[in-house]
Design goal:
By secondary structure, the protein is of the alpha/beta class. The chain is built from twelve helices and eleven strands. The protein binds S-adenosylmethionine.
Length: about 290
């Protein structure tokens, strides 16, 4: 990055709002940084963004070095939900975490229940990060696993580090190319709304995730509410501003038994913070 670009990025960060650890840019931050606002205001699609430059280490350090109260609450609800569906899973269930990025806790949520877990992401840097973590995940993730250990099914996994390494399969794939009805359990955390500015593409991503699951497959999906985008190590990435109603509108086309909730946080909210939305449900049978 040139020195003027670096200075612009620093100015942008000064005026950025912190959106639960995922930085949300305000219009002022964008203006102050000297970005071309007209270009930014054009609706940009998934392929318009530099996913291979996604700074996985920055993202991990910023979001997951410590276990936040809202992530802990999501984990508690997801572990409860998946544990409740364990009895109805087929033999040797296959799980999918789409858009894994630099987050292991969705994959960990599926660990007791799945024989194999696909960790697919569209970013080459995130895929490299996931491959390295699969070999031996960093010790700060132990705190996340210990939170899951409150649930009986998770306590049965004696060596989660070995188990995640053995069961997970990392690949560079797009959510838009997911095969249909291929997985028995799924997670999609902060992905469909955080990969485009185009609401139609957001719907398409949610639909493809739902269709990738076999009918009856339980899933958990999390969304940043009302986000207008985020920076990762100084690079801007997009978002579609969604609330629980938009999440329900599109998920209800591919899923049933839906529960959609805002997740509260004890961390003081910053200006412009929209919260997190957690959806759980099971995939519909589709024609
Ligand atoms: C905000 S991050 C979320 C990462 C992680 N799931 C989490 O919980 O923090 C968005 C993720 O979506 C991924 N992504 C972007 N476009 C994608 C696509 N077309 N298919 C699959 N993943 C994509 C990015 O590489 C990034 O890892």
């Amino acid at each position: 990055m040139g020195s003027s670009a670096a200075a612009a990025a620093r100015r942008a960060i000064r005026f950025a709002r912190f959106d639960l650890g995922r930085v949300t840019l305000t219009r002022r931050a964008i203006r102050v940084a000297g970005f071309d606002v007209r270009r930014l205001s054009r609706t940009r699609r998934n392929s318009d963004f530099p996913w291979d430059d996604f700074d996985s280490e920055w993202y991990r350090a910023h979001n997951y070095l410590r276990l936040r109260d809202d992530d802990a609450e999501i984990m508690r609800r997801v572990a409860t939900f998946l544990s409740g569906h364990a009895a109805s899973l087929p033999a040797a269930p296959r799980g999918l975490d789409i858009g894994s990025g630099a987050n292991l806790y969705p994959a960990m949520a599926m660990l007791p229940f799945c024989a194999d877990i696909d960790l697919w992401d569209f970013s080459a840097s995130n895929v490299r990060w996931l491959q390295a973590q699969r070999d031996y995940y960093d010790t700060h993730w132990d705190v996340f696993w210990n939170a899951y250990r409150k649930f009986a099914a998770y306590r049965d996994v004696t060596n989660p580090r070995e188990s995640l390494g053995r069961k997970s399969h990392v690949a560079l794939r797009s959510i838009f190319d997911l095969p249909r009805a291929n997985w028995d359990m799924g997670t999609m955390f902060f992905v469909a709304e955080s990969l485009t500015q185009d609401p139609k593409e957001f719907w398409g991503a949610v639909r493809r995730f739902g269709r990738a699951l076999r009918p009856g497959a339980p899933f958990a999906a999390a969304f940043m509410a009302h986000s207008v985008g985020y920076t990762v190590g100084g690079t801007f990435f997009p978002a579609v501003a969604v609330g629980p109603a938009e999440v329900e509108d599109c998920l209800s086309l591919v899923a049933e038994q839906l529960t959609i909730d805002m997740v509260e946080t004890e961390t003081p909210l910053r200006r412009g913070y929209g919260g997190m939305i957690l959806a759980t449900g099971v995939a519909r049978a589709l024609s």
